[in-house]
Fold this protein.
Amino acid sequence: MGKGLWAVTISLLVVVTAAAQNESVSVQSVVEKVAPSIATVKVVLKTTMKMGGESMEEESKMSLQGVVVTPDGLIMVSNSPFSPKRMMEILAGEAMPAGMDYKMTPTSIKVIFGNEDKEYDAFLAATDAKLDLAFIKVEGLGDRQLTPVDFGSATDAKLGQQVITVSRLTKGYDYAPYFALGQVCGEIVKPRRAWMLLGDISQLGLPVFTLNGELVGVLTTIAPEVKDEGGDTMGFTMVMRLLSGGGSSGTGGVFVVPAQQVKPLVEQASRRAAELAAERAKKKEETPKPATPAQPTKPKTGGK
């Protein structure tokens, strides 16, 4: 091999190595920036199903990943686990069967920030069926200010571009943050503008970023306006992943919705959460405290 060829080979290796190092630095920077905004949401759901004059109730627990969207504790998550109607739309592109009543009601919501032991109480403040997103308001933060993702600043995705999300493991692994990479592989304009992904990104309700840390949008589901011929749009596996907070990138109605479409929802949900928080505080003040049982009096003793 000639000296010239050796020089070219070495130069290429240097370029490739430098590019890999730069990408590694970019990924680490995004994880460090986004991780403080990713919260773990523990939900207890009461499922009630009525059909044919019979009813059934069941209680289940699930853990979701959410993102802080306001400093005072508004958390955005996927709406799919709370909405049986949405599940039917995504599963078969159809409404709930006639005569069937299916409800999912959260009876307890707890939020954990980072790898803290403390669990904050929270309530479901707002949902949006079109973008399949839900908003949870944390209570009892006091003066604590959280680190939100800013939906006022975002960029458009480009075909072939690599993108990244940040999520957290479970308590058994100290809620350690980790990343997943995907690649923009397509774009739709109906029923709304959104991008398709290939890769490992699957946590519904979480923001998607470029490798430079610029916000692109949110991974969520989009129900089709028209049911395609040939049956279901999703299989059983997809439904199970939706129920656990995960998705399947690029298939089954899962897309990245531009941040510009999400921003107005965050603003509306923030106002609604403030209204509900005020109502809840007022009810707590009006609720009479249980009376303290009277202490028995000791009989007086007389005589000399």
